[in-house]
Design goal:
By secondary structure, the chain is mostly beta strands. 9% of the residues lie in helices and 47% in strands. The longest helix is centred in the first third of the chain and has 32 residues.
Length: 416
């Protein structure tokens, strides 16, 4: 009889947890139904990169060439006359001059994309991963090398970057006085518009890869394989940002004054309203979380992924976002795990006000301890623990932080 009773209780709890999981999924879907992001166009290929020049927004697509919008992303038109390759990997624009990097070389338009011509730099037809311009200076990165032009692309010279394998090139940035080249494994910095380059990886994780770079106020912010990093000393050293954003692929970054928007592959769009120090997700209505590219055009943020192009007002996200504060808490604090739902791992961030002994454990819906993440003395400050549920089944789990008389329990959802 006891065995039957226990078995019956277990079945009830299993059904209850399944129903609760279903309710959570419904609530998540209901939240998404109140859309804030609006899909502006359905496309059949990945949006690799955006470029903005005044009211013109250009989108470079991996299969369908170049699109142009003149109304902040509401409508789009093709701009592919003269482009020999419809696979656009990079795009940059300024003053009606547009440059598109393809698998078949670098193309230039001098009339806002109406007509394109191949730029003859003396190189073989090859993939151009990145292109950036500032006034008459242009940098271009290809699988055969790095090139520099000071006459809007009429003539080109190789750049001596110190990078041995050009296939590692990922991103470019030309600033007022500082320029960057991002690669699969490192970051390079120039203070003379590309004549000389040096490694600038102090504080960066090993083999991090740099996808995207922006400048705001006195900071540089970069998106890497392992999340967001920020520099306050002109790119000499970098600090990892962990407040509200996961250490994962950040493929696109765009800025609007002090606001920075990040396209986080697999997790949608995040915003920071304080120069990249703190971040929050702004994904209401965004059906495609595999975001790759992002740009700000006037009052609108435009994001691209594998399922289309989406738009949303800047003010809508900035005024509604819940930001973490820079003030240090005075008591224990346990944040919601991220991501949630998750598969197979998630991070739990917590704050300890003073050095002492704590436990952070994970339990299933039956109340059984399944993992001890922390058990012992920890220093005062913020900490992050990772829970890996690779061998666990989908469902609801609980994590509990305890120290003395303090106890805090939160819920998380594993969805496989």
């Amino acid at each position: 009889m006891p065995y039957i009773a226990i078995k019956f209780i277990g079945e009830v709890m299993h059904k209850r947890s399944f129903l609760l999981l279903q309710c959570c999924i419904i609530m998540l879907c209901s939240t998404a139904a109140h859309s804030q992001w609006i899909k502006s166009t359905n496309i059949g290929s990945l949006v690799m990169e955006f470029a903005r020049d005044g009211n013109n927004i250009y989108a470079g697509l991996i299969q369908d060439g170049v699109l142009l919008s003149t109304d902040n992303g509401v409508t789009w038109m093709e701009r592919n006359i003269g482009v020999a390759d419809s696979m656009i990997f990079s795009i940059s624009a300024q003053g009606n001059r547009v440059y598109a990097g393809t698998t078949n070389g670098l193309f230039r338009s001098t009339n806002a994309g109406l007509l394109w011509n191949k730029v003859n730099g003396g190189w073989d037809d090859t993939l151009f991963q990145a292109v950036a311009l500032r006034d008459s200076i242009i940098f271009a990165l290809s699988q055969t090398g790095a090139y520099r032009s000071v006459d809007s692309g009429s003539t080109w010279m190789p750049m001596v970057t110190g990078i041995l394998d050009p296939r590692e090139y990922k991103s470019l940035f030309i600033g007022d006085s500082i320029s960057f080249i991002g690669t699969d494994k490192s970051l390079y910095r120039s203070t003379d518009y590309g004549l000389q380059w040096s490694v600038a990886d102090s504080g960066l994780a090993e083999n991090y890869g740099v996808f995207s770079i922006v400048q705001t106020d006195s900071y540089f912010v970069i998106g890497t394989f392992h999340g967001i990093y920020r520099s306050s000393d002109a790119g000499v050293s970098w600090t990892e940002i962990q407040f509200g954003i996961m250490p994962t692929n950040i493929e696109g970054i765009a800025r609007s004054e002090k606001n920075i928007f990040a396209a986080v592959t697999g997790y949608g769009v995040y915003v920071s309203t304080n120069n990249g120090a703190n971040w929050s997700a702004v994904n209401a209505g965004l059906e495609d979380l595999v975001t790759i590219s992002i740009v700000v055009s006037g009052p609108t943020v435009i994001v691209g992924g594998v399922q289309g192009i989406w738009i949303r007002p800047v003010d809508d996200m900035v005024t509604s976002v819940h930001q973490w504060t820079n003030t240090t808490p005075s008591a224990f604090r346990v944040e919601q795990n991220f991501p949630n739902p998750f598969n197979p791992s998630t991070s739990i961030r917590y704050f300890v006000p003073a050095n002492g002994s704590i436990t952070l454990k994970v339990f299933d819906v039956m109340g059984r301890e399944i993992s001890s993440l922390v058990d012992g003395n920890v220093d005062a400050g913020w900490h992050t623990a990772t829970f890996n549920a690779e061998n666990r089944s989908s469902g609801i789990y609980f994590y509990r932080l305890q120290s003395g008389s303090f106890t805090k329990t939160n819920t998380m959802i594993l969805m496989k």
